[in-house]
Specification:
mainly alpha, 77% helix, elongated, transmembrane, membrane, MARVEL domain-containing protein
Length: 127
């Protein structure tokens, strides 16, 4: 679900003249970077590749990935929301406002993933 919402964030921005405003460049970087990584980890999970590489502490990898995604997406969502004004460009206002809303939705999804990754990591370290 988070990969679909993340895709929505960066496509809403990519359809505008975001390159004229550096703040939206940062949001695009975070959205595209974590979208690619999320799809990568989804493929690893769906193909069960993680079972063939037991040397990697996958619970820690998941915790670090989701935690960093939460923090950087939170910063990007705040930057996105604070940069949306009708004064900049009326033509792009609706797309930017929608991207801001969905950036906060993706942030909350990554927060939930971070919580569940922490619970999983904690249960593995207590065994």
């Amino acid at each position: 679900m988070v990969h679909v919402l993340g895709l929505l964030v960066w496509t809403l921005i990519a359809g505008t003249e975001y390159f004229l405003y550096p703040a939206f460049g940062w949001v695009m970087f975070v959205a595209v970077f974590y979208w690619v990584l999320t799809v990568f980890f989804l493929i690893i999970y769906m193909t069960m590749t993680y079972t063939r590489i037991p040397q990697v502490p996958w619970t820690m990898v998941g915790l670090c990935f989701n935690g960093s995604a939460f923090v950087l997406y939170l910063i990007a969502a705040i930057v996105d929301a604070s940069s949306v004004t009708k004064d900049l460009d009326n033509h792009n206002y609706n797309s930017w406002a929608a991207s801001s809303f969905f950036a906060f939705v993706v942030t909350s999804c990554y927060a939930g993933n971070t919580y569940f990754s922490f619970i999983s990591w904690r249960s593995r370290t207590l065994q």
